[in-house]
């Protein structure tokens, strides 16, 4: 059984066929999924999905690109929703220096507030990191994020950055990019990550794995990610699937 730790079934891309998408994922062996809400609209949709499907859980937070829209009212709302039994993480939050909608200082402030919230409600944090590796690590250290740990989602950093995150109680998660033919670094990093700290995800509808690159991603394709990681780590697919599912359940407190 497979655990997709990061999927956006709450995205507009699934508006017309989310039930079929979920059914295909189940047939591919996906036993659990975490739907990630990152703004008002997607958080609401994530909460609807967890109430509709026994095997779907939610992470709720505010995306760094939209950090400029995060206010105290939204933070209080996230705090309240976090008490729901199927909310298993805060996020995705972090830093994104690729897009410039939200200034860096605004992003950092929103990131710190969500780490503090995660510690308060005792939930792990899902980290979005785009072109901001060193700043992410520094803020995680300064805010003592290791108290709750979490996930470096769709990790794209170096092995040195990964080791810093592992020391702080974070798991390293890989998605579609690890299957890309030209993705040398993610493969090298994945090889070095201890099996008991490894997770899999799709980030669907984004970042579809090879051979679907450029098309709409789906949670069923997490199987392709698992197959590639098993090959990289030179273990059986069954062992990779079992370990990553156990890791996810341990992190999220799912029995």
What does this structure look like?
The longest helix is centred in the middle third of the chain and has 18 residues. Helix 8 packs across helix 9. The protein has a single domain, classed as Metal-dependent hydrolases (TIM Barrel). With 255 residues, it is an alpha/beta fold. Strands 1-2-3-4-5-6-7-8 form an eight-stranded parallel sheet, sandwiched between helices. It starts with a strand and ends with a helix.
Q: Which strand order does the major sheet show?
A: 1-2-3-4-5-6-7-8
What percentage of amino acids are in beta strands? 15-25%
Largest sheet: 8 strands, parallel
Q: Helical content, roughly? A: 40-55%
How many distinct domains?
Answer: 1
Termini, distance in Å? Answer: 14 Å
Strand segment count: 8
Please give the count of helices.
Answer: 9
CATH superfamily: Metal-dependent hydrolases
Structural classification: alpha/beta
Regarding quaternary structure, what we see is single chain
What sort of overall outline do the alpha carbons produce when their principal axes are compared? Answer: globular
Q: What is the string of SSEs from the N terminus onward?
A: EHEHEHEHEHEHEHEHH
CATH class: Alpha Beta
Which runs of at least 5 residues are low in confidence (pLDDT < 50)? Answer: none
CATH topology: TIM Barrel
Overall average pLDDT: 97
């Amino acid at each position: 059984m497979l655990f997709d730790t990061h999927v956006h079934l709450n995205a507009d891309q699934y508006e017309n066929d989310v039930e079929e998408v979920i059914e295909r994922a189940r047939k591919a062996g996906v036993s659990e999924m975490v739907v990630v809400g990152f703004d008002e609209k997607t958080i609401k949709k994530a909460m609807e999905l967890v109430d509709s499907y026994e095997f779907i859980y939610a992470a709720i937070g505010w995306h760094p690109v939209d950090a400029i829209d995060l206010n105290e009212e939204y933070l209080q709302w996230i705090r309240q929703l976090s008490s729901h039994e199927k909310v298993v993480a805060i996020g995705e939050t972090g830093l994104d220096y690729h897009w410039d909608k939200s200034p860096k200082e605004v992003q950092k402030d929103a990131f710190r507030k969500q780490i503090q919230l995660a510690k308060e409600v005792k939930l792990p944090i899902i980290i979005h990191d785009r072109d901001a590796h060193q700043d992410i690590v520094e803020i995680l250290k300064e805010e003592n994020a290791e108290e709750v740990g979490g996930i470096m989602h769709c990790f794209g950093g170096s092995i040195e950055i990964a080791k810093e995150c592992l020391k702080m109680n974070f798991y390293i998660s890989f998605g579609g990019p690890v299957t890309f033919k030209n993705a040398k670094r993610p493969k090298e990093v994945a090889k070095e990550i201890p099996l008991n700290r490894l997770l899999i995800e799709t980030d669907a509808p984004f970042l579809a794995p090879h051979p679907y690159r450029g098309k709409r991603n789906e949670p069923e394709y997490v199987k392709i990610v698992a197959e590639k990681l098993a090959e990289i780590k030179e273990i059986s697919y069954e062992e990779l699937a079992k370990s990553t599912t156990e890791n996810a359940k341990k992190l999220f407190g799912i029995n």
